[in-house]
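Board notes, transcribed. Complex of a protein with adenosine-5'-diphosphate.
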Amino acid sequence: MDAAPLHAPAVPTPTAPDTLIRARKLSKTYRMGTPAQLKAGGGQTVHALRDVSLDIARGDFVAIMGASGSGKSTLMNILGCLDLPTQGRYWLAGEEVENLSPDALASIRNRRIGFVFQQFNLLPRTSALENVELPLVYAGVATPERRARARSALQRVGLGERGDHTPAELSGGQQQRVAIARALVNQPQLILADEPTGALDTATSEDIMQLLSDLNAQGMTVVIVTHENDIADWARRKLVFRDGQIVQDQRQPGRSTQAVGAQGARAVPGMALGAAYTP
Ligand SMILES: Nc1ncnc2c1ncn2[C@@H]1O[C@H](COP(=O)(O)OP(=O)(O)O)[C@@H](O)[C@H]1O
Ligand SMILES: [Mg+2]
């Protein structure tokens, strides 16, 4: 019992400690057709993902690009535990997602992952603060702590003074900040953002990318989908999808955690790290 054999075969650990996402041969197919066609075994099969294998390290900042219909959102939904692959295996922080019960999956989604969407997906007629509190309501956190954590998340995105405003009283960029605060409030390990700047003008998009970049510099793993090169340039790694497969996987030069704060060459004028969020 006490002495391990010197030449014991290495136990294959599916996930190295610094790997947050490990996916092997993920495929996703959809059957399309009328109910009658499907019943008769007819219709069409759509291959949204084909044998996608991918590792994402903790602390990385990844942009996923590719034409519409190439499988980006399908992958994000699987990575976010919103959907399961038809085939293949996926480990999130060392846990194999397929083996988890629906409750465990919901809990992983709520605790480990923060989602950001193109259309913000905020509740209308509900204050920014209450929108940010929502994931904590689901997590059963008591009201005073909920308030405090939501306030601090809003401060983190530069909206400390806007907690009482409803989405309609905020600009698009501010609404996306609220959505990012909501994504952060459970202190997730991973932010998944599907076209987070798709509904924003160029200047506001840059603000949002600066915010995601700052969060990444603070250690957050960030994965975004975008079809704009200027947006993907903020990431440290760029993946390109075509027809459900990764056709390009590229490290972007000069992007490291340390370099994130020194974006002078490409930075938005007047935007210093930390001073970016004055509302
Ligand atoms: N729920 C679904 N039912 C049927 N087909 C789907 C569904 N979701 C996506 N698809 C198809 O899968 C392919 C990939 O879609 P998607 O992942 O949304 O692409 P992207 O986000 O890159 O635009 C497309 O052909 C799309 O029509
Ligand atoms: Mg999509």
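The radius of gyration is 20 Å. The longest strand covers residues 19-32.
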